[in-house]
Amino acid sequence: MKGKEFEVREYPVPEPASGTVLIKQELAGICGTDLHNWEFQRMEHDVIPGHENVGVLDAIGAGVEEDYLGNPVKIGDRVVLSPGVGYGFLPSEEQPYLRGGFGEYIYAWHPESLFLKTDLPIEVAVLTEPSACAVHCVTRAKIRFGDTVVVQGSGPIGLLVLNWARLSGAASVISVGGPGGRLEMAERFGADLTIDIADVPDPNDRKRVVRENTPQSAGADVVFECAGNPAAIVEGLDYLRRGGTYVEYGHFVDSGTFECNPNQMLLRKNLRLEAAWGFESNHFIRSLRMLEKHADLFKDFVSHVIPLERVGEGVNALHTGYHLDGRDAIKIAVKAHM
Predict the structure, then answer these.
(1) Which of 20, 36, 51, 128 is catalytic?
(2) What is the pTM assigned to this prediction?
(3) Is 319 a catalytic residue?
(4) How far apart are CA 135 and CA 225, in angstroms?
């Protein structure tokens, strides 16, 4: 990615140095962060995007005998790679090359690289990174059994947050977002109510609907902001009951500001505000464990698999209404070998 342009380039494929591995990519997800970096031009250098990665070990450097958890590995094993050291965001023209997932190979060159072996299907394994984000987000909320939870945003992160929140004890889960295909997935994940922002365009009407669907119309116990739109924060704070918890997660990339009256919007609500950044290694590990346990839930989560040459189309689909090839997009993934 160079500015707002996408082009296919060739790089030499390295022989792994001691302590490193070369992964032949099977699938890489297009993330909202990729969209926002493209949309707001937050990258100051050319980059090979792709930080949601699954592939097979193609070559192994000396001394590498196991994954992060101590499981023995060999050439041909499927692994998921955490982007923690910068994979998918590093300068593409600096050596070592191939440090992003939108390509045939990714070179895990950093000594602190975290990769885990898995037997999951690639369409589920590729969700490990976004699921790790959701694990961190839900963990920060400290959900209690019987809570009413609202998730703003029905993209991949919002849907994964909804699912893990439900499995964490939420008695009622409300999804606010769109388009329809994504809200159908929210219902499959157990959403008790979905609110399509296209059908209910007035924020005040959405606030009313949300509160009417909470105990005593008092508001939700927990609200997650996963939409990445500053205006969603203003709206979502009014979904909360007094003393509730608001978890902000949608602004990994700087996408603007909003006007805030701390007295009215925060203090008088006596709320708890959490702001979660990315994830840590333990969230990545927990994410894979949960995906392995609940793999059947995610059978159709990857709605589109496209070749490298169509990455620009995939990003633009997320920019212009979440629609590609005649159907709603949930998760778009890139496959170099098609």
Answers:
(1) 36
(2) 0.95
(3) no
(4) 14
Q: Active site includes 33?
A: yes
Structure tokens that stand for 217 in this block: 């119309």
Cα–Cα distance measured from residue 298 to residue 189, given in angstroms and rounded to the nearest whole number: 9
Give the active site residue among 33, 139, 194, 214: 33
Asked if 298 and 331 touch (Cβ cutoff 8 Å), the reply is no
- The one-digit pLDDT tens for each residue of the chain (338 residues) are 777 889 999 999 999 999 999 999 999 999 988 888 887 777 778 999 999 999 999 999 999 999 999 999 999 999 999 999 999 999 999 999 999 999 999 999 998 999 999 999 999 999 999 999 999 999 999 999 999 999 999 999 999 999 999 999 999 999 999 999 999 999 999 999 999 999 999 999 999 999 999 999 999 999 999 999 999 999 999 999 999 999 999 998 888 999 999 999 999 999 999 999 999 999 999 999 999 999 999 989 999 999 999 999 999 999 999 999 999 999 999 998 86
Domains belonging to the chain, first-starting first, are 21-127+301-334 (3.90.180.10), 130-275 (3.40.50.720)
Distance of alpha carbon 130 from alpha carbon 88, whole angstroms? 14
